[in-house]
Specification:
The protein is built from four helices and two strands, in the order ααββαα. By secondary structure, the protein is mainly α.
């Protein structure tokens, strides 16, 4: 989501409108100073609109919710599932399975487990359990959102 471009368009429009109104160098300087001063408020307003959009879309979801996360300085809407994370009783863990993995995948699993604060075994169990409990259609959300 490119909120910087939206804020810049608003600022450009304010400058153009202010210059049309007076066509005077002194007034142009005042308009430029005013637009510079209200720039942070414009950006904050754009971010609040993103948050409102997330709340409205989230309220219309039958399952899950929408979060606003910052990615590379820009907000992004992320749909999250409300499904409870699976938990396992260690007494239930009786089946064994040997899986041969490429070294890079093993390293990636170890890193992801570490990032999640889990052991590799727990991380793999949670990931497999979550992945196999979902519908075979994948993770697409097929809903209509009203704005």
């Amino acid at each position: 989501m490119n909120t910087e471009a939206i804020a810049a368009k608003i600022e450009d429009q304010l400058v153009a409108t202010g210059r049309l109104a007076a066509n005077d160098p002194a007034t142009e300087q005042v308009v430029d100073a005013l637009v510079t001063a209200i720039g942070p408020a414009i950006r904050q307003g754009v971010l609040e609109l993103v948050e409102q959009a997330a709340a409205e879309v989230g309220a219309q979801l039958t399952t899950g919710h929408v979060d606003v996360v910052m990615s590379e300085g820009e907000p992004a809407l992320v749909v999250r599932s409300d499904e409870a994370e699976p938990s396992f009783n260690t007494d239930e863990l009786v089946a064994r399975m040997t899986v041969r993995l490429p070294e890079q995948l093993k390293a990636a699993l170890e890193e992801a487990a570490d990032d999640a604060g889990d052991s590799v075994n727990s991380f793999v169990l949670k990931t497999l359990s979550t992945g196999t409990s979902r519908s075979r259609k994948g993770r697409r959300i097929r809903e209509t959102f009203e704005t």
